[in-house]
Structures are given as structure tokens and as C-alpha cells.
Amino acid sequence: MNVEFEEFDTVEEIFLYMACVASPMKTVLPINSYKGYICSIIPLSHSDTDTYLMVYTKGTLENGILEFDVNTKTYKKVESIERSDKTYFVIMSPKRNTIADAAIEKL
Known about the structure:
Blueprint: E1 2-7, H1 11-21, E2 28-34, E3 37-43, E4 51-58, E5 64-69, E6 74-78, E7 87-92, H2 98-106
Parallel strand pairs: 1-4, 2-7
Antiparallel strand pairs: 2-3, 3-4, 5-6, 5-7
């Protein structure tokens, strides 16, 4: 398994990046808060040698739904997904994530 990395200083930068690379109609994206990192692991290839991109910053986030406004680069916790003009992130804290574990070892 190959892992490439893109490190950011803030969680807002990760949210902005993820909002830009998501498909146009995709407004709900997963983010992990795992072992002191806020990250998303994106598959880059589906060949014999899987390659992933880990987009990350150091920190933690509480599990739940966050509404992100691309224009103001701000986010807030919400109870439901309601607006099509916003991007939403579902924050999860997995008990174990073997791909993230392998990526973190390479940092």
C-alpha cells in the first residue's frame, strides 16, 4: 500500500480542500477524528498496488454533523442536513482504522 500525504494547518483548510475535490452533487463527506489527527483517506488508484491520499491536520473533532460554508470558511455543528448550498461533514471516530494506522506510521 502506498500513501501520499497532504498536510494542512487547520481543519477549515481540510474542509475547503474536501469541498473542492468532491463531486459537484456530493454535499456530505466523511472525516475521521482518529489518534490525534483529523483526516480523510482518499483512494487514488484501484490497482494491485493501492495508493491513497491522506489529507490531514493534527487535532480532534467531536462526532456529529458539521455544516461548512465555503465562502466564509467557517463551520458549525448541526443536528441535520438541510441546505443544498452548504457542504456537510460527518465526523466519525473509528475504534480502529488500519489504513489510517499504516499512513500515520509513515508520517
